[in-house]
Amino acid sequence: MPAFKLRMRTSAAILAGAAGLTALGAGVLPATANAATASPKAIAARIVPANQLASFSQIISHESGWNVTATNPSSGSYGLGQALPASKMASAGADWKTNPATQIKWALDYMNTRYGSPNAAWAFWQTHHWY
Predict the structure, then answer these.
(1) What is the pTM of this model?
(2) How far, in Å, CA of 33 to CA of 30, rounded?
(3) Which UniProt keywords apply (predicted)?
């Protein structure tokens, strides 16, 4: 292949890649910029794998009703995933008390570590009514 055609194809591939990155960035940047105004459910949809989202959502709905500051008065468990002690969520970020993204990341990690996935955590929850 002549060097000129190779350079044209390479340049076209670079431009296509850059366009893809720009398109990807356009999808990510507004989400990041609007993280403070996005609902916890919308944030979860960006963080939790799609094939795990329904189960994750079921657990969070039952545990906290998607209330970032939900507190169990008897146990002290706190947040979307009802961490106990609440301070465990600090492992996901210093803003764990009020940031739904931090709480979602912590809850997803907890479900993956303890049960293997949100789907498996939800199966356990359905039997025991806790996770």
Answers:
(1) 0.73
(2) 5
(3) Signal
